[in-house]
Write a structure and sequence with these properties.
The complex is a heterodimer.
Chain A: H1 2-36, E1 39-40, E2 48-49, H2 53-60, H3 62-95, H4 100-108, H5 115-125, H6 132-139, H7 154-178, H8 183-191, H9 196-207, H10 209-223, H11 228-234, H12 245-255, H13 259-288
Antiparallel strand pairs in A: 1-2
Chain B: H1 11-39, H2 44-47, H3 62-70, H4 73-105, H5 110-122, H6 125-138, H7 145-153, H8 156-167, H9 171-179, H10 184-195, H11 197-213, H12 216-221, H13 230-237, H14 243-274
Helix pairs in contact in B: 1-14, 3-14, 4-7, 4-8, 4-11, 5-8, 9-10, 11-14, 13-14
The chains are: A mainly alpha, B mainly alpha.
Chain lengths: 289, 279
């Protein structure tokens, strides 16, 4: 009994710093965020309760719809590139028996770059004149593109950067998952007359289903919050084509000092992302049990 | 081991696939980086030329030193190191004892506390941006690295990883030390930490890399230019800096992380699969 009390005291001693940090920087902001969305908050006057006014202001802002459209476009494109490409890349790399260490090294190299550095490097590579990308395209006899300078390609250009910078992580996680697939499954499928594509679809995909699902959900949640690339590379332009939800939120909070409306937008984002996050937790918890 | 395609068959096809993969991946992931390193050594006039030169016609490696001085990179390196080392130290100092307590001491309400911590992982970072910023501002921690240190300490994922590792430590060893009269602090410091080196390495690297790569929090916290980290300073300098100098600055600011990766590759890659997802 005495030992239990002593252990509890020790435990709470050990926990105290963490409890303070979590309380101040996580739990309190969560609660505060829910309230802020219904308040008018600036640094000038005291916060005042305004009900749904912040939401009404948001819905009246033409950029609101634009930001959601752009964000969904970014997420959709990022899924095509950032989700499918790493998987196929991992499948190919898993087949190759040479240079394994080299491939692992180079696909992960960009992940180590600070996102701002990657964004600034690519901003320069996208330069329609001396930029590396158009130079390479012209070298192949193709016409270059305007990349960041045109509203048609700006979002695609940002997705390319984000994918280049982050695909190493997903690729290596898939690679680890692929290596745990028992070889006899492929053998059996082949004996049954399944070609390469059918083996990929009926053995590889189901065997890695869990990892695929988890990374899919994580990717959606992460890409819906895209900020650094548009902030650093385009500032939302051209013609508002890269204003994302988070960029709009940032503008409301830190250009207009309208923290209430920014918080209202946060709450809407939470509403959308909450579903994906809940799904993610369900999936991972089931796998843990 | 047998994979999608049986080994040994299609030998010619294999070598073609290997060559194509090597060339394509090198072109995508290595060439841009080498290109930046080389381009930074071209004079500004040569850098603007269309089509660009591959190797600099006039080598001006001095741009690296010039960029260092012009952008005062020494200061921003120091600021970034202060943030990264602080995040690392505070995160370990706060989260290791917490995870130990939750794992081995099993206090009353321990499960609830861990649940509340893990709940914060459910919150998309963007949603907490404004309330956390206002809280930091209320505490008077704007332009103070302490804000980032404490923010980094509230890391549920680190607590979770550490707790899971501590859970697996052999109970007999800890009990034996207890019988020898070791207090909880001695137990943690002398027995648990030495046994936990692998996970401590993973958590440490992740803390440092995340702090070095972070952009949005330093951007919000450090409005004072003298205190900014490399990422924040570089994007501020970008519009008005000659391109060759900016590129040199970008290369210089990537060196520590790339170096860290090359040295600790094994740990970084182990950390990737450690907690995130199981195969």
């Amino acid at each position: 009994m005495r030992r239990r009390v002593a252990e509890n005291l020790a435990a709470y001693g050990f926990l105290s710093a963490a409890l303070v940090c979590f309380a101040v920087f996580s739990w309190y902001p969560i609660a505060r965020g829910a309230v802020l969305g219904f308040q008018q908050v600036d640094f000038v006057t005291d916060p005042a309760w305004v009900g749904w006014e912040n939401f009404e202001r948001l819905f009246a802002d033409p950029l609101f719809a634009t930001a959601w459209r752009n964000t969904l476009l970014f997420t959709a494109l990022a899924l095509v590139f950032g989700f499918v490409v790493p998987f196929l890349l991992a499948v190919v790399l898993n087949e190759l028996r040479h240079f394994k260490a080299y491939f692992r090294l180079i696909v992960y190299l960009p992940v180590m770059l600070p996102p701002v550095v990657a964004a600034l490097i690519w901003k320069w590579m996208y330069d329609p004149g001396p930029g590396l990308l158009n130079t390479a395209l012209r070298g192949l006899g193709l016409e270059g593109a305007a990349w960041l300078d045109s509203a048609d390609t700006s979002m695609l250009s940002l997705v390319i950067v984000a994918t280049w910078a982050n695909l190493g992580t997903a690729t290596l996680i898939y690679l680890a998952a692929l290596q745990s697939i028992p070889g006899d499954l492929y053998e059996a499928a082949e004996l049954d007359g399944a070609g390469v594509l059918r083996r990929l679809w009926h053995v590889t995909v189901p065997q890695t289903r869990f990892v695929l699902l988890v990374l899919l959900l994580l990717q959606v949640v992460a890409t819906m919050q895209v900020f650094t690339e548009p902030y650093v590379m385009t500032g939302g332009g051209p013609e508002d084509s890269t204003v994302t939800v988070l960029l709009l939120l940032y503008r409301y909070a830190f250009y207009y000092n309208d923290f209430g409306t920014a918080s209202a937008l946060s709450l809407l984002l939470l509403l959308v992302l909450g579903a994906f996050t809940a799904l993610y937790l369900r999936v991972t918890r089931k796998a843990d049990a | 081991m047998r994979t999608l395609i049986a080994p040994g068959r299609h030998r010619a096809g294999y070598h073609v696939a290997l060559a194509v993969t090597t060339v394509v991946l090198t072109a995508i992931f290595v060439v841009p980086l080498v290109w930046v390193v080389l381009s930074a050594m071209k004079p500004a006039v040569e850098l603007a030329r269309v089509p660009p030169t591959v190797l600099p016609e006039t080598w001006t490696p001095g741009t690296y030193a010039e960029a260092w001085d012009l952008m005062d990179l020494g200061r921003y390196f120091l600021n970034t190191i202060v943030v990264a080392v602080g995040v690392w130290a505070v995160q370990l100092a706060v989260d290791v004892p917490a995870a130990y307590a939750l794992s081995r001491l099993k206090p009353v309400l321990g499960k609830g506390i861990l649940g509340m911590m893990l709940l914060t992982l459910m919150m998309p970072a963007a949603v907490l941006l404004v309330p956390t910023y206002l809280t930091i501002s209320d505490l008077g921690l704007l332009n103070n690295p302490l804000a980032l240190w404490l923010l980094g300490a509230a890391n549920a994922f680190t607590v979770f990883l550490l707790k899971r590792f501590f859970d697996q430590l052999p109970a007999e060893v800890l009990e034996a030390a207890r019988i020898d009269g070791a207090g909880q602090f001695t137990l943690l410091w002398r027995i648990v930490l030495p046994l936990s080196r692998p996970i401590l390495a993973v958590v440490s690297i992740f803390a440092v890399v995340a702090a070095w790569k972070d952009f949005i929090w330093p951007l919000l916290v450090f409005s004072d230019p003298a205190r900014q980290t490399l990422s924040v300073a570089l994007q501020r300098f970008a519009p008005d800096t000659p391109v060759n100098l900016l590129l040199a600055g970008l290369v210089l600011s990537s060196v520590p992380m790339i170096g860290l990766f090359l040295v600790f590759q094994r740990h970084v890659l182990a950390g990737l699969t450690a907690g995130s997802v199981k195969g």
